[in-house]
Amino acid sequence: MNSKIKISRSIRGATTTEQNTKEEIEQVTIELLSNIIESNKIDKDDITSVIFTLTPDLNADFPAKYARIHLGWDDVPMICAQEIAVEDSLKMCIRVLITLNTIQEKHEIKHVYLGRAKALRPDLN
């Protein structure tokens, strides 16, 4: 029996698209979430909530929609919001913050940055 107690932790991630289309938002969202799930061995039942943000140039669809469709996260509270439009910031970017209960220590959490979003966290690549 595992004697470790689950505590609340958060995982960050981000990715980018090349176009503002439903298909591309779907593809990069599932790629990002799949990488986060695999890297952190996440069980859906441990997820508390998920926040997605999109830069203002991405408005073709909701990333949360694809988490529900492809990952079965129907009972996970999720919200999509618009990232603030900071001048000269990374464009066409989807960010995610997943809060979950886990036995992992903070230093064991693997944050995932894909595509041009790797530039946001060069310390992780």
Spell out the key features of this protein:
28% strand, alpha/beta, globular, 5 strands, single chain, 125 residues, five-stranded mixed sheet, 2 helices
Secondary structure layout:
Blueprint: E1 7-16, H1 22-40, E2 47-54, H2 63-71, E3 78-82, E4 93-102, E5 112-113
Parallel strand pairs: 1-5, 2-3
Antiparallel strand pairs: 1-4, 2-4
Helix content: 10-25%
Would you tell me the overall average pLDDT? 96
Round the Cα radius of gyration to an integer and report it. 15 Å
Give the DSSP E fraction (strand runs of 2 or more residues).
Answer: 25-35%
Structural class: alpha/beta
Shape: globular
Total beta strand runs: 5
Detail the poorly predicted runs.
none
How far apart the termini lie comes to 35 Å
Sheet having the most strands:
5 strands, mixed
N to C succession of SSEs: EHEHEEE
Instruction: Count helical runs.
Output: 2
How are the strands of the biggest sheet laid out side by side?
3-2-4-1-5
Describe the structure.
The protein has 125 residues and is of the alpha/beta class. The protein contains two helices and five strands; from the N terminus they run βαβαβββ. The chain has helices at 22-40, 63-71, and strands at 7-16, 47-54, 78-82, 93-102, 112-113. It has a five-stranded mixed beta sheet with strand order 3-2-4-1-5, covered by helices on one side.
